[in-house]
Amino acid sequence: MVDPANTPLGKMLLEEITPVVMVLCTPLVEESCLKNGLSFVQMLSPFCDFTNIDVPVRTASDQPYRLHKFKLRLFYASDIRQPNLEVAKERLKQVITKAGEDDFPEISSDLPQVNDLLSRHESEILPTWFQFFNKELVRTLSFSDHEAFDHPVACLLVVSSCDEEPINRFIDLFNTNKLPSLLNDGAMDPKILKHYLLVHDNQDGASEKYATPSYLFMKLGSPVQQNATRCGFWWIEMLKTRNQIKEAATVYFRICGEDLLHSAVMLEQASFCYLLSKPPMLHKYGFHLVLSGDHYKKCDQIKHAICTYRNAVSVYRGTTWNLIKDRVHFHIGHHSYAGDLGQQSSIKDITGAISERFSSYCSGDQ
Hints:
This protein has 16 helices and nine strands. By secondary structure, the chain is of the alpha/beta class. The strands form three sheets. A five-stranded mixed beta sheet has the order 6-1-7-8-9. Strands 2-5 form a two-stranded antiparallel sheet. Helix 14 packs antiparallel against helix 15. The chain starts with 7 loop residues before the first helix and ends with a helix. The model is unreliable at 211-226, 340-348 and 350-363 (pLDDT under 50).
C-alpha cells in the first residue's frame, strides 16, 4: 500500500499547509546566526521536520488516526504577507519561459504519437515543469485574509543575551508596527500562542542574564473563501488521488481566469488529464492543447505554443477535421520559421501535412 505522505497530494499537504510559526527576533540574534552563514530561520528549519513518529490524533469529526510525519513552517513576521501580484506574475512568467527554453530542443524530434503516449507512465508523459510551476503558483497566493492555512498558530519571539533588558525586548517585539497586516487587521487571532527564546552566543562569554531560567523558554497566551486557484489545486490533487482524472481536468478549466498565460498553463494541464483519463478522451486532449497553444501564442511564449500544437497534431492525424489540422500546421510552420526554430522538423511536419491534405482532397473528403 502506498504511503499517503509519499503521494503528490501528501507531499503537497506537508509542504504547503502544515502549521506556520511566526518568528520575531532582534537584530543581534540574526547577527549571531549569520556568523555561521545562516539566518535564524534557516538554522531552526532542519528541526521542524518530524519523521518516524507515531502519535494518535483525532479529526474534527472525532475520527482517530495516527500521525507518522509532521512538519512546521517557519516564517519571519515580515514575510507573512501576500506577495506583490505584479512581481509574482513576472516570477511565474520567468518559470514558464525557462521551461520553454529547457524543453524546446525536444521538438526537433519526430512528432509524438498518441499510442506511444498512452503506453507510457504518467510521469513520462507530463512535462516536468508543471509541478514546479504549480508549487510556485500556490505560493504566490499564500497568506490571504480569507484562508487560514497560512495563518500562524504560534509566535516565536527571540532575543539575544547581548540585548539590553531582554524581558523588555520580548515585550517590544510583539508590540511593534512590524507585525503582519493579517494580525493588525483582525484576520488572525491576536491571542496567538507565544514562545519566548533567549539565544546566547558562546563567543560572547558567560552571561549574567541566564540567572533567571524563565528567560530561556516561556509560554503565554492560548492556542489559536479560500483563494479559488489554491482551492482548485487542493481539489485537483484530491481528485487525482481518487483516480478521478477527468473531473480534475474540469477544475483546471474552471480556474483558468482572465490572465492569458495562466490560462495557457491550466489548459495544457487539463489536456493531459483528458489523455490520462480511463478511457482516454483524445478529442478533448487535442482541443485543449490547441486552446493552450493559442493562449501561449498571444503571450509570445512561442516555444510552448509550438510544443502544444505538435502534440495536438498526433490527435488529428488521419481524421476528417481538416480545418483544425490546417490551422495547427500553419502555426507550427509559421512560428518555427519566424523564429528560425527546428526548421528540419517543421519541414517534415508540414510535408506530411500537405501529403495528407492532398490525399483527402483527392478522395473528396474536405
